[in-house]
Amino acid sequence: MQEIFKYKYDDLFNPTLVALQKLGGSGSVSEIEEEVISILKLSEDEINDIHRESTTKLRYRLAWARNYLKRYGLVENSARGVWSLTEKGNQLPSVEKDKIKKAVAKLDRKENGNEINAPGQVNNLTDELVELSWQEELLKVVKAITPESFERLCQRMLRELGFINVEVTQRTNDGGIDGNGILRIGGVLSFHVVFQAKRYQGSVGSSVVRDFRGAMIGRAEKGLIISTGSFTREAKKEANRDGAPPIDLIDGNDFAEKLKELRLGVNVEMIEKVEINNEWFSHF
């Protein structure tokens, strides 16, 4: 298959730095991505080109770019997923990509005895890249189940998230509505929600969102589309179009994250690390 998105991870070093500068020195992953799209004037086809599962090449390679920039000391990230320029990063308007790659390779040899030659080697990865790795593996498993099983999995997830009376519908010609439920907030407010479950390989387009909204109006206050794939940029815009009922979107990576959070088919092993405080014993 011909590659549409031709920028490599190291081509994105400078666009990432420029994006953060334009954002005032810090930004979320999605904000940085939007700025890079604007800086590089990317087409919709380039933006939506899939790397693997529900991860686009743009998102994947930007994650690697941030990984290198972080190890080089130009950017840092918080536990909330906000990336920001360091003091060093603020002082550099641009960088030489070969210089960064050589410096990171040298650092990796010093720390692990291995050199990072290209993205894909699992050495000193950011949490973001580790997440993308296991999310892709989980989505492979989910995509192997039947569409009916995926609908039931979505039903279970929504129940675990606090929805009540969650039903999977068997009606045809229903505009893509696969189920419905009620979300109660604080035991006071209730919202009727309809959802669509798309066990999807590629990107969900804007037409799917429009059709679903048409089926939703008059039946529920909220709509939700859950997909194992990704959503195109146009689909995201359509979901939040002014003057139209908003549609919430859960893509494959978000879906995998929810399964992990709820421990649905995902086991998380917490490794205990014990450190001895020698100085503490010196007081006796």
Automatic annotation (TrEMBL):
Keyword annotations: Endonuclease, Hydrolase, Nuclease
Domain Restriction system protein Mrr-like N-terminal as annotated: residue spans: 9-92
Coiled-coil ranges from the UniProt annotation: none
A Pfam family the protein falls into: Mrr_cat
Matches recorded under InterPro entries: Mrr-like_N_dom, Restrct_endonuc-II-like, Restrct_endonuc_IV_Mrr, tRNA_endonuc-like_dom_sf, Type_IV_Methyl-Rstrct_Enzyme
Organism: Pontibacter saemangeumensis
Claim: DNA-binding is one of the keywords in the record: no
Protein's name in the database: Restriction endonuclease
Domain named Restriction endonuclease type IV Mrr: residues: 143-257
UniProt superkingdom: Bacteria
GO molecular function: endonuclease activity
UniProt keyword Transmembrane, yes or no: no
